[in-house]
Amino acid sequence: MGKFILKRIGLACVTVFIVTAAIFFMTHILPGNAAERILGPFAERSNVLALEKELGLDRPLHVQYFNWIKQTLSGSFGNSVQFQSPVEGVLFPSMLYSLRLASLAFVIVVPLSIIGGVVAAINRGKLIDRVITVGGLSAAVVPEFVWAVVLVLVVGVKLEWLPVTAYPDDGSNIATVFGYLVLPSIALVLVLFGYISRIARAGVIEALDSDYARTAILKGLTKRQAVNRHVLRNALLPTIAVIASQVPYLVGGLVAVEVVFNYPGFGSLLLTSVQYRDYPILQAGVLVVSVVIVGMQLIADILFAVLNPRIRQKVSE
Amino acid sequence: MSSTPISLKHTAAQERRTMRKERIAVLRSNKAFVAGVLLVGFWILCAIFGNWVVPQRPEFLDMMLTDLPPSGAHWFGTDSLGRDVFARVIVGSREILVMASLATIIGTVCGSAIGLTTGYFKGRLDLFVMRILDAISALPVLVIALLALSAVGGSSAVITVLIIGFVFTPIIARTVRAAVLGESELDYVAAARLRTEKTPYILFNEILPNVLPPIIVEFTIRLGYAVFAIATLSFLGVGVALGSPNWGSQVAENYSGIFIDTWWSTIFPAAAIATLAIGINLIADSVMEAFEL
Amino acid sequence: MTSPIPSLELRNLSVSYRVRGIERSVLRDISISIAPGEAYGLVGESGCGKSTAAFAAMRYLPRNGSITSGSILFEGNDITSLGEDRIKDLRINAISMVYQNPVNALNPTLRIGKQVIEVFRLLGKTEEESIELTKEALRKVQIAEPASVMGRYPHQLSGGMAQRVVIAMAIASNPRLLVMDEPTTGLDATVEAEVLDLVRDLRRESGTSVLFISHNLGVIRTMCDRIGVLYAGDLVEEGPTETVLNAPNHPYTVGLLRCIPKGGLNKDSERLDTIAGTPPSLGANLPGCVFVDRCAIAVDRCNTEKPELADNGSGHFSKCFLSEQAVNLPRTKSPVFPNAEITPAPKSLLLEIEHLSKTFKQDTNDVRVLTDIALSLGEGETLGLVGESGSGKTTLARAILGIINPDEGSTISMHGKKLEALLGNRSAQEVGAVQIVFQNPDSALNRRHTVARIVARAVQKLAGKSREESEELAQNLLSDMSVDALLHSVKPSQLSGGLKQRVAIARSFAGKPELIVCDEPTSALDVSVQANILNLLVDLQRRERVSYIFISHDLGVVRYISDRIAVLYLGRLMELGTSETVFNGPHHPYTEALLSSVPAIDGSQRVRIRLGGEIPNPSQPPNGCVLHPRCPRMLGSGVEHLCTSIEPPLAEVEPGHHMRCHIPLAQLGTLQSK
């Protein structure tokens, strides 16, 4: 088992490496670099060149990349261009904010969509099933910002139930902070719910239709006992994999939602960094995000292997 | 004496006809499918005929008529620059539909090609390509699109279409690859090799027709997400030309209006996005169900 | 004197399924009665409704199924509309079921122990009691190490082992009725025999009533007291097993029994009888007798009136207006190719295989699937290939075809000329000369192509004809195989299994083949259809002088169609000889065990020779002779020391008869004639 885990970690590192390299080269192949941005479009050419040299932008691309790697591995991410301060100081607080929001959304959506999927499967063909399935998938395909805007209008402005920015004043207690995060979380939940519940539903249906579920019933178990003891453990296995695959969409959704709610999270930072061509932040941000996403996939993979007897066997031989 | 009595000759052809009839009947009676077709059909008509139908030109602005609520003269009201929201919403359908369709077609064609080859050949090529696809999927669609678009300098519809197509490719490739893996195990593929068929023939004439159903289903699903992505990108101010009446930027421009009670210039474009995306998705869902019959 | 209350009674039971929006009749007004302690066999081909009847007895129907009329009675009590909680009690205590696919019937993520313990817990036992009872139950079904098996997961069990576990769960409650739905279909012959022995022993001990579902008449014969024959959802004949099988009274039963190749028959002596036509589609509306479309003695009355179940005395019933004439059912014997003569032409050597081995590389160790196979085949000859799982017969077929690459040193030659190992390196003519008919026609024919296209393309590529010529030749080929012209533009999914297989056979003949590998070509087909296909293959062989390598697990079929037979075990050739020599003996101990485990339909029974243990893991073959840990003839043979240390060579023990065994032929002859 240990070998399996190590192999997976190795693969994950390779993926992260490919991602950061790709992004690095992509963002550097462009016209218009950070030096120009900082000094403005009317700056003297010689000043721009001097700044470029200072920032190390005149070296060949692969050299720049390896320098970046060296720098990162030694713990420093460089300086942000737009804020003229260390990247860490800007990036990590913003990530914490996003983490709060994302965690709340995650904690709501995972149980909700699994329950939704199970309920839909058990009541297959009935109205509740259609509502959950069609409703969930329809909601999933409407962009987060549309939901956010509608929620702000209806819940925030018209009904005035909840605040419409996600960022409370300093010193507020947990409950208030939570209250401020509810609306943006809902926007994210609405988009994530559909797919996860559909996979959960499919897993439960396949398990319900299986021969072993039939055996359970014919042994004399009630439908409820059969579902709890035999069906669910098999049905929810594929759902774990799916949840991990939704993390990228969660991160992507953060960008739009944070803009609507004016929330100083990683999403907003990303947007401004893109506009400013702030490479240090972009590079570091991409690195952290890909580590998070790939890490979640890794955990899901390992969890799946541990819980699935067939794979667990193969792995420990 | 033939071993197929008269009754059988009619049965086979009849069976085929009845199966198809039953499938179509199920589809037609599926309310979701009908609703989806109506919604998408409406927007397609708007995209084609929009320009001739609207009472005013979408770019036409009149600073005397800013922020008017919906009325007989302006069904959806006017925005902060005095432009008719109805016209902008109707005409805005063209851009997003064209871009979404193109992006999805590109993604589907590339993804299917990759899925076909990796699923059939397996081995080293498969492992290598899957690594790369995993890497592409490791970042959110939006983030990649943002980075790429900023890299190229912000406002090009063509680049947006290409980027979204690029990001869809791994998703579609995965589905197609899985289907192809399943098909390659079947004996008719071995039978084709036993006829001295060359690989291109096997891929395109034997396997591809059998994986078309999942490809079609993926296409319809991805189309909805293309609308999703394009709307979000334009909302964020990236990827589309300024001034063109696309829905995402309309929402972005007029969002602050919600707080001062001029909600119409934001909500109508938002509703347009929602209805188009949902319509496509309803069709996709019904198609998927129909193929499972 | 009143007869005892039947254990199970189905009274005028009709069941229908809802498919694509329409209700379709699956069981039509059937009445069955099983006395306490009796074993009742329900027999029929696919789609006849026998599984539905089995599940109905458990009061279990799929989501789209419903009981449209009639009732189900258990020990005299009507359970048709009994509530779920009362039914649950019955399932726990009184009625149990054994399923067709035992590995799938077990929960893949739960250990075996937990699943069996659950049954005892439902009976009210404590956890400690249940664990002990589980061990006992597993021992009762002859699992030697219960504790070890209890710790395993279903995918780690062989089919036979899994079925024992399922049986253990079923008998745990000492049920009064046991329903068995094709319990040994899909198991190897020797494993099947052991499971059936087990069931017979258990039944003798406990006196349970049994409802036994099977399509295999031989199995039914050895297991059941009475049988019922189902056709298109209707019970057409019923009675004591011996009576029905020896003197059937319904045209369908008569025809069915005639389709089955019985011992002693072979293709040169007698042609198999067939039943014309195909069964009605699911839920078809049949106003008259269900069998009328295919019955050779049908009269007008049969089309419009439904016959009643007529009593022929001694508890033998049949649903036919003409039951007395059934036994004289005319044979459908017109040959397909009336001009083909049985010319005993000299058979020149066609195929020669020497030192064929194949090793598959796995991550941890190598698995030798075939070891040093040597075979030869003459023109127009049929070689039957027999073996159970792990024998390597499929691998051998694929190696001959060129689909897989055998190990270095293997040679395959045709007409004396060595063939390239891999398909891609052979010439078009060589490829066309060696073709295959696959087991599963659904997988073998591209479901998106029309029948005509499938065959025409083969003609185009293998016979080198132009497109137009190919189309015409394809039409002719298909008509030759009795695939009607109206069906040529149809896709395979519209055709029945038998027709699909004919298309596959037509395709294999596209390029003037000299050798056709038939890989279980009739295993997925009903018995009546099988007879048709076998006749077709025999006719084609006579006309085209093509050779067959015929792989099958059905020894009766192999005996009928083969000139010579090869017996494989664990990738090694154990015996090779003419059909009669191999079947009559003296034979290899493995062959002996194999033959004795097949239940004969005519009631003749060989002495049961049991093989101990299970088929060994091919990656760790036993030392010496690979059969020795299980060989029934090793002990007391005087050559044990050889069997355990040296692998016997394949030796010609008499002219044309090869065996891989240390025991001398004469000694085997004496041992086996006892």
Oligomerization state: heterotrimer
Q: Say what the CATH topology of the largest domain in chain A is.
A: MetI-like fold
Please give the share of residues in helix of chain C: 25-40%
The total of helices of chain A stands at: 13
Number of helices of chain C: 24
Shape by Cα distribution of chain A: globular
Total discrete domains of chain A: 2
Terminal CA distance of chain A: 9 Å
Question: What's the mean pLDDT score of chain C?
Answer: 90
General description of the model:
- The complex is a heterotrimer of chains A (317), B (293) and C (674).
- With 317 residues, chain A is an all-alpha fold.
- Helices cover 80% and strands 0% of the residues of chain A.
- In chain A, helix 5 packs across helix 8 (174-208) and helix 7 (144-158) packs across helix 8 (174-208).
- Chain B has 293 residues and is mostly helical.
- In chain B, helix 5 (141-152) packs across helix 6, helix 7 (187-193) crosses helix 8 and helix 8 (199-235) runs antiparallel to helix 10.
- Chain B is globular, with a radius of gyration of 24 Å.
- Chains B and C meet through helix 1, helix 7 and helix 8 of B and helix 16 of C.
Give the structure's gist in a few sentences.
The complex is a heterotrimer of chains A (317), B (293) and C (674). Chain B is an all-alpha fold. Chain B has helices spanning 6-29, 31-53, 85-121, 123-137, 141-152, 157-184, 187-193, 199-235, 247-254, 264-291.
Q: What characteristics describe this protein?
A:
heterotrimer; A: 317 residues; mainly alpha; MetI-like fold; C: 674 residues; alpha/beta; 8-stranded mixed beta sheet; 24 helices; 22% strand; globular
What topology does this entry show?
The complex is a heterotrimer of chains A (317), B (293) and C (674).
Chain A: H1 2-28, H2 34-39, H3 45-55, H4 61-73, H5 87-122, H6 127-141, H7 144-158, H8 174-208, H9 211-219, H10 223-260, H11 266-276, H12 279-307, H13 309-316
Helix pairs in contact in A: 1-12, 5-6, 5-8, 5-10, 6-8, 7-8, 7-10, 8-10, 9-10, 10-11, 10-12, 11-12, 12-13
Chain B: H1 6-29, H2 31-53, H3 85-121, H4 123-137, H5 141-152, H6 157-184, H7 187-193, H8 199-235, H9 247-254, H10 264-291
Helix pairs in contact in B: 2-3, 2-10, 3-4, 3-6, 3-8, 3-10, 4-6, 5-6, 6-8, 7-8, 8-9, 8-10, 9-10
Chain C: E1 8-19, E2 22-34, E3 39-43, H1 50-57, E4 65-74, E5 77-78, H2 84-93, E6 95-98, H3 112-122, H4 127-140, H5 146-150, H6 159-171, E7 177-181, H7 189-206, E8 209-214, H8 217-223, E9 226-231, E10 234-240, H9 241-246, H10 251-259, H11 300-304, E11 310-311, E12 317-318, H12 323-326, E13 349-361, E14 366-378, E15 382-386, H13 393-401, E16 411-414, E17 417-418, H14 428-433, E18 434-437, H15 441-444, H16 451-462, H17 467-480, H18 497-508, E19 515-519, H19 527-544, E20 547-551, H20 555-561, E21 564-569, E22 572-578, H21 579-584, H22 589-596, H23 640-643, E23 651-654, E24 657-659, H24 665-672
Parallel strand pairs in C: 3-8, 3-9, 6-7, 7-8, 15-20, 15-21, 18-19, 19-20
Antiparallel strand pairs in C: 1-2, 1-4, 4-5, 9-10, 10-12, 11-12, 13-14, 13-16, 16-17, 21-22, 22-24, 23-24
